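COURSE: Structural Biology Practicum
ASSIGNMENT: Worksheet 4, Part C
STUDENT ID: 0417
INSTRUCTIONS: Below are two proteins. For each, the amino acid sequence is given first, followed by its structure token string. Answer the questions at the end about the second protein only.

PROTEIN I
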Amino acid sequence: MDLLQLKYFQVVAKHQHLTRAATELNITQPALSKMIAKLEKVLGYQLFDRRERQIQLNSLGEAYLRTVENVFLELKMGEAELAYLADHQNKVLSISVTIPSLLPDLLGDFLVRYPGTRFRQHQASFEKMVQQLEAGEIDLGISTKPVAKENIEWIPILEEEILLTVPLSHPLANRKAVYLKEVEKDPFVVMPTGYDFRTMTEHFCHLAGFSPDFAFEGDETGITQELVERGLGVAFYPTVLINDRVRKMKTAKLKIIEPRCTRTVGLIRAKNRKQTNITMKFSQFVIEYLKNRQKDQDE
């Protein structure tokens, strides 16, 4: 097993289509197919389900993809570490997020522009993030909740509509929009306690006048939506901060008529702390990155 195999696997997982992945990698489709088969043989597990000419990441592949993405993220961060040691510049940035799925692309793109940057990253609940900021443990936070504190600055960037996803076999699947109350008896697929998306799920359901039945938990958006795809429940679905792999899952995505289901994503930072040059650059980059994501979704 080598990094080239892992890269090939990552690209195939992104497209879930061998021909398109081979085109991006500039190799032949048979060669790519053999490379994926060789990786599966080394691991001892099938990472994809194959049906005729279709190839789809299975649950083992989903788990392995998260590991591979972390490997490449660590490598990129390692390159940033070397750059720092080489020129002795203090370019360390400590951040905390409530949406961990943002990090691979966001940090990867930022490191392309500013390759000398080092990151210390944290995944935290909103409350923990505020504590980290006040204690000086982090420079910035990317949050899905506004902050109303004198010593903390809240910079809203985008408002994201939240949809409801149901299995294609669900009685409501052919509808374009629903009232949330209509699924009060359905099992909900949620993230574990402590995740802000779990808190958001509870809040929206309470606004609709019911307490959700939490049947299954998944610690990542992709797993949550895969459980919906397999008919195990319904779930909320962010329209902007979602990757292409999850977007292509075979579920019905329904607008919610009532209550109004949105979340605001923004930056939080300490007002009384001097912002370093790299912190200011990252703040502006995050704003541009998120606004571009929303623009792409609107188009």
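PROTEIN II
(use this one for the questions)
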Amino acid sequence: MDRWMVEFAPQLTALVELGAQSGSMTATAEALGVAQSSISRRLHALESALGVPLLIRDGRTVRLTSQAESLIADCAGPLAALERAVTRATAAADPESGTVRFGFPLTMGAGAVPELLAAFHHRHPRIHLELKQAHGAELVADLEAGALDLAITIPPAEHLRHRELGEQEIVLAVPERHRLASRAAVDLADLAGEVFIANPPSYNLRHLTEAWCREAGFHPDVAIEITEFTTIRELVERGLGVALLPRAATTDVGIVEIPVSSPQLRRSAAMAWPTDVTTPAVDLLAAFLLDEFGGLSTA
């Protein structure tokens, strides 16, 4: 594998980028900053060297063979690590520059994380931030593929290098005219029979919602599924159901948030890195966030 990485890094990089660009040779060439003919030559050379077909021509695009998809899955991470190592070596002379690809959860789109990113940018204006919000599984997949340099994940990515940040409180969100709206706290069992609004099953909070409700003796009646947390709050405000959500950074008109006292609902968050090889810019952002991060009670 080492020999292949050394001798065929440009060809493998072209193949990985082609996969990321859904088979568009033009987009791949633009992303890598080379001529399209160069991409074609690289891929043809890789096919010849391996002795297996990698591409199926389909008009102006190409489709990847199963061998190509397997090769991309195996080499995307090592190629990203190689790029980080080279970047680290060349960036050492000027640690106040560079790019950091940083991911954070959808539930942290307001409050502490944006405030801290703004403060970091003012302190280190020559470091370029590429930000991505997504749910936990997608962020972990991007870390594994080398598409992110650093991310906050919920739950912690136990198999990656990580450092726990703390816990995020989950509260009950109800319309202001709901029967429970005047309560100082609720037991989860009080929600049996309620209609729920929740994320799709692939989301960590959906898994936790179902698990917590089962432990309380009932299965949640999820009538509406949606990815966006802000839209969940809008639907709750309109009386379409209740939801278990992280506490909002600001008060939403028409919604009452009620602590759940039995059981108390919490979920852990952590900072995660794809590898131990980082750049000075990544180190600066990680150290800043770990030092300054003041809490996880944001939505």
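ANSWER KEY EXCERPT:
Q1: The CA atoms of residues 175 and 255 lie 5 Å apart.
Q2: The chain has a mean pLDDT of 86.
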